[in-house]
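My convention is simple: the sequence line spells out the residues, with the fold written below as integer tokens. I include a record here:
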Amino acid sequence: MKIALLVGGSSPEREISKRTGLAVYSALKEMGHEIAAVDPAYGKNQPQEISKFFEEQDFTEISNKNYVEALNLQLFNDIDLAFIALHGKWGEDGTVQSLLELKGIKYTGSKVLASSAAMDKNMSKFLFRNFKVSTAEWITAVPGSYELKSLSKIIKKDLGFPCVIKPNDQGSTVGLTICKKKDQIEEALKLSFKFSDKALIEKYIPGRELTVAILEKEALPVLEIKPKHGLYDYECKYTSGMSEYEVPAEIPDKIKKKLQAQALLAFNSLGCEGYARIDFRVTKKYEIYCLEVNSLPGMTATSLVPKMAKAAGISFHELLDRIMRAALK
């Protein structure tokens, strides 16, 4: 097929998108597809050398204002599929998806509304609650909507400490803080508001970090993440050796099945399609709490979906093939 690989973008997860893009590009080339890379943050000014799309240093100035120009490039008039290797805001939130739909181009991953809902953590949690997906208690805050003293009282009463404060529409733990006491709330909110105009404040769930990939409405084996920091933060996610992974996870079969069922329910509650990764915290008593749905999960050397696929006997090439076939249905 002729495939446009969308990579890079203007979110704080740009570097990770480049890693995903390189892994996907290499595999698709090996599979015999014809690939044209496009970085929507570059607009009309795209590199001629394919390697420039994946280098750490940017080819030219980036901006989310360039997306429309990039998606109007001539090459999009002659492709079979767009493979979205973008992560975070402006790539995973329905923006690119809506532009592709306007052009009548089929693309990998979830459609506009599901992508938007998955990226909006507050919206996701309302949908989770409606569809009986277990999730931690939460509140939201926007700049100027609260008086710090009263917000602290609400957090102490409704959520307790520690609590988690994070941007409402970012991934990869960007801007996330675990607040152990009320004195940390103000700085945590300031950090969160650097990345989003809304902060999600969530009850902290102690326990194990587990995740389940969904591929074409099928739950793959459960994977446990064992980060060196205790928190699966940006460094532990993307630095080799900073996390250990166990797949299938060593948990009772009953809990595995419940996690897979909850993952599929979360996937369907947002209207996701193709593939996604659903993250959970599981307490010592095996209480399950869904954290979020990643509608465009990473495909890097340390990424989790390929690990779960491998445990199910699905190679990386087959995984990509199934993702693309699902998009073409």
In short: The chain is about 35% helix and 20% strand. The chain has a mean pLDDT of 94.
